[in-house]
From TrEMBL:
SUPFAM superfamilies assigned: VPA0735-like
UniProt cross-references to Pfam families, sorted A to Z: DUF1214 (PF06742), DUF1254 (PF06863)
PANTHER family cross-referenced by the UniProt entry: BLL3101 PROTEIN
Superkingdom field: Bacteria
Protein name (Swiss-Prot/TrEMBL): DUF1254 domain-containing protein
Organism: Agromyces bracchium
Residue span(s) of domain DUF1254: 77-207
Taxonomic lineage of the native organism: Bacteria, Bacillati, Actinomycetota, Actinomycetes, Micrococcales
Amino acid sequence: MVAASGIGGSGMNEAVRAGLAMPSGASALEPSYVSSVAQFAYVWGYPMVNMMNRRTRLGAAPEPGRLGGVLPASPIGQIAMLNDYIEPAERFIACPNQDVVYGLGFFSLDEQPVVVQVPDFGDRFYVYAFYDARTDQFGDLGSPYGSTPGHYLLVGPDWHGEVPAGITDVFRSPTALANAIPRIFMDDTDEDRAAIQPLVNQVMVYPLTDYTGEMKTKDWSDVPSFDAGPNAGGAETKWVRPETFFDQLGEVLATVAPQPGEDALYAQFTALLDAGARDPEIRAGIEAAFHAADETFAPHAMQWRYNGRDAANGWNRSVNNSQWGLDYHNRAATSRSNMFENRPNETQYFYTDDDSDGNQLTGGQEYSVVFAAGDLPPVDGFWSLTMYDDDHFFYPNDLRRYSLGTKNKSIVYGDDGSLTIYVGHTSPGADLEANWLPAPDATFSLYLRAYGAKPGITEGTWVPPVITRR
């Protein structure tokens, strides 16, 4: 539980806090007011509580390895890498992709900075995404920025130490809690799997005290697996729970300083928690509101019509991804449905639950997704079309195929240069199967990624393809 003074370090003006604090008398707090403030607090705080709980769970690994054998996990201050595409059994991060080799690590930058190694990727597309406690990205590292190989330093908001020799650049996180997710493109071929291994083995992050100036290596194909604990069936691990949100929201308010313009919110939320701490009846009302918000907001956040803006042909596209500012709605919706997007200049996302006529996509129907000749997604990096089930994960299938795009060298183009991708539960036939995305015999969604998007996408002149019933 957090008292109003618990956020004194945030720099909030005392007069603002005093003027916005709720009265101490419980009878003065009308129940519907408590409920409305608490429900908004739940949506506002959802991404930050999500980040805190992922750090606690994934950062508990005793050494760099894999949680449940499928997700990179490492002690706080380090990173773990996969050495191949992520497995379809993974249920810790929704909407993964199978174009890249992933890494993941969480940091407490108020304790000490960490060093990030970048090998020489040559022409291979890559990006290291760094996220703060709000799930906003910071730092510019990867192909979109022309980054050079070397050692980079991540520091916290209050770090003022000496930068050692040999550090290429320094990136400052706005918050002490941060994480990193490297994404390194890999073709779906045995040759590229072999070629990428020496590069992946040089992707490491470690505390500044371990820095020697030399490039360290680790064989990421040979790391331990840790027990994943109970799973939520087909859904993503439930990272945010209304029954624990009261105390965790207090921790957020105490440890994550307000953005400009948020002082009033912090004062209201802190005063609400203070009132709940004093009065069990008020706390019960707050917690009931948290549960109500979870039951209404969370399911709607999984529907793509509420994420981003219309992009034509039945698709929505991301806006503000990982640069949320005060866009609390999309920040929270993405935290629930597809956390850890890249910022727009790194990746553009298009997604839909429906065909181009507005009907829900379902495995009982067969679809064609046609890219006209010369109208593939214009990118400097790569593109892919992924099929996700209702829970935003891969559908297990005998082809072990979950997406199609740049990485696939066996897809077949039409004589005129067009590309047709077939989506459905039933094979379109042996002669078309190279272009088939298998779908469950249930509802599903499609997700189009464009890494290193060119102006046609970023400026909105390119539109995603029509999805038609066959």
